[in-house]
Amino acid sequence: MKIALNGQNESVSSKNVDDLVNTLALVREAILVEHNGVALLRSEWPHTALSDGDQIEILNVAAGG
Question: What is the residue range of 20's domain?
Answer without folding.
Answer: 2-60
